[in-house]
Structures are given as structure tokens and as C-alpha cells.
Inverse folding.
């Protein structure tokens, strides 16, 4: 991942202002420690902090067209850049960077080229010929992007809120799948897949079609010129990523770093994830790296985690902390890119609360809502927890083509039906249930869903709650609605995270970038209505799915729990 900052239409042209923009861009250097770039034209600045993954030698940014009249600063990866170059034979490329195609595509097709990009990206493009600009974000919001406005009439874009929050009067999250055009004024959606309308699909379930679509998505993400690995929790999603990557590694560009896949796992000693991940790694023959952390180490990192992840959402912080700690260890090994399993639960209805989905229509609508919100939760966590240490996370389940295949299937096949032995994500499990050439051991392929914040060790969440109870008094929580009238925290844990967040990001605009509302086991607020008992057990942990999770909270714990939040991963 890289870090981008763009300030357009600025009124102050002094050296002091240039120095200020350099200073703000430096706040993003953790995202891109390999090189810094700054472009200035008239009243516009484009800044870039680079993490070199593809073409490390010559792909420094900003990037240009042939005569440097079109300038672009990009955070992301364009997996189909070679195919796109074939459509741009008349253009001269200066680098081997996958992102350079953006400048040339704009020159060739104008603003309507964004849908041609297959990848994850946030970018700002300046056309110096008329001083116009566009900004765009990938379909799902895998890469972060914020937009702000200065009192001098300037427009700002940044990969993280910390680069613009102090200097903008107002700012907000840039919506995924959207493009902003200074010529046309305002945002418009460029990503318009069939599932976005939430109409119920009817395509038949074809296991091999689903399997091949996912394999293709993983292979795309083996595009790298630097060492990489797979985040392996031992759950279904990450295990499938590791299995497919291991199968196709030898025939990919990534093979330059060896034919043995590296896998990484983090957890408290004795946690469910560590045991399962070790078993999967042994089965696949990967070079496995197991990292342990103590509850106190995680608690000590909380302030840094909240600063980097830029949220006060309870579930996101619970899951971000071990991922943050693991990413530091991964970077110390010289690894700069990892492939991860985010997105599967949203697409296939994998969270345990989907056991209570009343019918296929409501299940499908909930999966649509969950995918649309990924940029606020799992994508934000996976990107910022790893980028904090200069590591890039890629997510094959959120491949545009794969999503279209998976979300086009009649949702009846996603319904959880114990009488037919169909557990959560059965259609994905079944697609990879190959007797001749097994992808995974059967008991791993059919392992019950564990949310990441649970799987690293149940005592992690319990330890966080205990710590928060020591920091936040009953009186503080009783007055929470007066201190925090917007998105009021309802638990001491939520209050504690909110107080840390507010120290780093005190403006109203900052707190408005974080969603809220009731949740159980990572559901949306609407799905809480699926079970009357859940309204008394509003906790985003999977163990809150009473009667579903094999390690569900007991009644005594239920009475003590009520937390805002949403979304995490297996």
C-alpha cells in the first residue's frame, strides 16, 4: 500500500504551504516507506509515499503520460495492467509500474475508463491542460480514501484521515465505487454491478464455476516483485487462499521468491487459530510463521492501533490489534505483501447470525448490505493494520469478477440448513470439496466460523473488557450521551475506545466517519430483528450467536454485554 495526498485549488503558494503539505504527507509514510514524491502545478499539489511492490526500481510516483500534462498519484494495484497496455499500443510508457496505465487510459478514454481497471485503488489525477482533476476509489473500498474541503476553497484527498483532518474545515469518507470530477462537479457511481440493487438473483449453483472464479482471483494477486505470504488463521477462508496460492505459486511471477509459500498466524498461546493454522500449514507444506502475543501487549498497543486504523468501532479494534502486532513481525522478516481472506463472510452469509436468516430474500439483502459496508469495517481494518508497518494486504474474495459470480447465485443455496448438513458458507466449502485432489482436510473445510477477534483466543476479548472496566467508571458511562451525543457508546469498552479516538481526531467530521448501531455477531442493525433474544445480547463477537456458536456466551455473560459494532473476518 502507498499513501497519497492531493491538495487542489489551493490559495496559498508560499514555501511555507509547500512545507506544510510535505509535513502532512509525511504522516502517511508508514504506508509507503520506500520513496516520497511531490508534484506542484499552479495551485495544485500531488504527494505520494511509495510502498514498492511492482517495479520497485522505476515505478516512483507521481506518474505521468508522455508529455507530463496528465499527472496521477495512486495507492493500489492494477492486476490487469498488462492487458490494458495492449489496448494502449500507441502510448509510450516510462515505467513498469502497474499504475501508470491510469494516466494513459485517461488520455485515451477520458473519465469513463475507471470500470476498465481490475484491482484495488484510490487515485487522484490532474489534467494540467485545463487544470481539472478526478479522484476515484475501487469498487468495494479495499483501499482507503478521504475527501476534505479547506476554507480557501481547496479540495483535499488523502489515504488516511490524519493527513487532512487538521487542515480541512470539513471532510468525509470517499465512497467506494465512485468517481469525483471537478468538471462535472460532485460524486457519481462508476461501479454498478447487478447485485447492487439487491434484487434476488436466480443463477444456478455450479460448484466448478465458483471454484475457478476464486482460483483466478487468487492467481491475479500473485503479481509481485517482492517477497510475500498468506495470512493463515486456520479458518475456511484463509485456508482456501493458502491452498490455492500454494497450488499455483510455481507458475506465477511470485515464484521468483521460491516455490514454498510462506504463511503467517497470530494468537494467544493455545488459541483456536494457532492450532488450526498449524495443521493447515503442515497439510499444504508451507513455511509457517506462528506469532504469539499476550493480552497486555495488545492492550499496550491500543492507542497506536486506534491512531492508525482511525476508528472507535469495537469489533474493528478488537480484530485490528492482533493484526497490527502480526504485521510488524511480518515486516521484520522482509515481507511486504500478504494475501488475506476478508470478504467471504459478507458474500456467502458466513457470520453465525445468518443461521437465523428467515428466508433467502432477507439473506441476500443482508449480504448486499454487508458488502456495501465493508469499507467501514473489514477493508479498513485489513488495510490500515498492515499498512501501519508498510505491508500491503490483498483480498481475492473481493475480486470484482468473483463477486459477480458469487452474488449471482440463487441465495437459496446460501441458506443454512442443518437438516441437509449445510452449515454456513456451504456452497463455498462444497465447491472445494475435491476427493481426488483435496484442497484441505475435511474437518478444516467444514470448520465452524470463528471471527478473527475470537479465534486469536477468547481471553483476548475478555481481557479488553476487563481493562476497559478499570478505565471507565459507572458515572462516566451514565453520562456518555452528554459527552458523546453522536454515536453514543453503550459499554465501557466502547467508551474507552471512543475517548482515545477523540484525542487523536477531535473534530465532528472525524467521528462521523465511524458507523454505529446495534449488532450481534457482526450483523447489521436490521438483522438483529431475526431473533428476539439478540436484542438483549448486542455484542459483535461470534460467541454472541446464542444457540449457534459452540462456545457461546453463558447467560451470566450475556447480561453484562451490550456493544455497538459490526464486521470482522474469519
Amino acid at each position: 500500500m502507498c499513501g497519497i495526498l492531493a491538495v487542489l485549488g489551493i490559495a496559498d503558494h508560499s514555501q511555507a504551504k509547500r512545507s506544510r503539505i510535505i509535513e502532512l504527507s509525511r504522516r502517511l509514510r508508514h504506508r509507503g516507506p520506500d520513496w516520497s514524491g511531490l508534484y506542484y502545478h499552479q495551485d495544485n499539489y500531488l504527494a505520494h509515499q511509495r510502498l514498492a511492490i511492482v517495479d520497485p526500481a522505476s515505478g516512483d510516483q507521481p506518474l505521468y503520460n508522455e508529455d507530463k500534462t496528465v499527472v496521477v498519484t495512486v495507492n493500489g494495484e492494477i492486476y490487469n495492467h498488462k492487458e490494458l497496455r495492449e489496448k494502449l499500443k500507441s502510448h509510450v510508457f516510462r515505467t513498469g509500474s502497474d499504475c501508470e496505465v491510469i494516466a494513459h487510459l485517461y488520455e485515451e478514454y477520458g473519465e469513463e475508463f475507471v470500470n476498465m481497471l481490475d484491482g484495488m485503488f484510490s487515485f487522484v489525477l490532474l489534467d494540467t491542460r485545463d487544470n481539472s482533476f478526478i479522484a476515484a476509489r475501487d469498487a468495494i473500498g479495499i483501499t482507503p480514501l478521504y475527501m476534505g474541503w479547506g476554507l480557501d476553497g481547496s479540495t483535499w484527498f488523502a489515504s488516511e484521515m490524519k493527513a487532512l483532518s487538521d487542515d480541512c474545515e470539513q471532510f468525509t469518507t470517499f465512497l467506494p465505487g465512485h468517481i469525483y470530477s471537478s468538471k462535472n462537479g460532485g460524486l457519481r457511481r462508476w461501479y454498478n454491478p447487478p447485485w447492487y440493487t439487491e434484487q434476488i438473483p436466480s443463477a444456478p449453483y455450479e460448484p466448478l464455476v465458483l471454484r475457478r472464479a476464486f482460483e483466478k482471483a487468487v492467481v491475479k494477486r500473485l503479481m509481485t516483485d517482492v517477497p510475500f505470504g498468506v495470512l493463515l488463521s486456520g479458518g475456511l477462508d484463509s485456508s482456501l487462499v493458502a491452498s490455492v496460492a500454494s497450488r499455483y505459486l510455481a507458475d506465477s511471477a511470485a515464484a521468483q521468491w521460491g516455490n514454498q509459500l510462506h504463511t503467517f498466524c497470530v494468537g494467544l498461546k493455545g488459541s483456536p487459530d494457532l492450532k488450526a493454522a498449524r495443521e493447515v500449514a503442515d497439510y499444504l507444506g508451507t513455511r509457517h510463521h506462528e506469532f504469539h502475543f499476550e493480552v497486555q501487549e495488545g492492550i499496550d498497543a491500543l492507542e497506536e492501533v486506534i491512531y492508525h486504523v482511525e476508528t472507535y468501532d469495537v469489533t474493528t479494534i478488537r480484530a485490528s490489534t492482533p493484526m497490527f502486532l502480526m504485521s510488524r513481525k511480518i515486516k521484520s522478516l522482509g515481507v511486504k505483501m500478504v494475501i488475506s481472506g476478508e470478504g467471504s463472510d459478507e458474500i456467502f452469509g458466513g457470520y453465525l447470525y445468518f443461521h437465523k436468516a428467515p428466508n433467502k430474500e432477507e439473506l441476500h439483502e443482508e449480504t448486499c448490505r454487508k458488502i456495501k459496508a465493508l469499507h467501514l469495517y473489514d477493508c479498513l481494518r485489513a488495510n490500515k493494520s498492515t499498512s501501519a508497518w508498510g505491508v500491503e494486504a490483498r483480498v481475492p474474495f473481493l475480486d470484482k469478477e468473483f463477486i459477480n459470480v458469487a452474488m449471482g447465485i440463487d441465495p437459496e443455496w446460501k441458506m443454512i440448513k442443518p437438516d441437509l448438513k449445510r452449515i454456513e458458507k456451504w456452497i463455498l466449502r462444497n465447491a472445494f470439496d475435491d476427493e481426488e485432489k483435496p484442497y484441505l482436510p475435511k474437518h478444516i473445510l467444514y470448520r465452524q466460523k470463528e471471527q478473527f477477534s475470537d479465534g486469536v483466543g477468547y481471553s483476548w476479548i475478555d481481557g479488553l473488557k476487563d481493562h476497559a472496566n478499570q478505565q471507565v467508571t459507572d458515572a462516566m458511562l451514565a453520562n456518555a450521551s452528554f459527552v458523546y451525543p453522536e454515536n453514543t457508546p453503550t459499554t465501557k469498552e466502547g467508551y474507552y475506545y471512543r475517548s482515545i479516538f477523540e484525542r487523536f481526531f477531535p473534530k465532528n467530521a472525524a467521528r462521523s466517519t465511524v458507523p454505529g448501531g446495534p449488532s450481534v455477531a457482526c450483523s447489521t442493525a436490521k438483522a438483529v430483528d431475526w431473533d428476539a433474544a439478540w436484542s438483549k445480547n448486542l455484542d459483535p463477537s461470534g460467541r454472541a450467536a446464542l444457540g449457534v456458536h459452540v462456545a457461546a456466551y453463558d447467560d451470566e455473560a450475556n447480561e453484562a454485554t451490550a456493544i455497538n459494532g459490526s464486521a470482522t473476518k474469519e
Observations:
- Confidence is low (pLDDT under 50) at residues 553-570.
- The first helix runs from residue 15 to 26.
- The two ends are 22 Å apart (CA to CA).
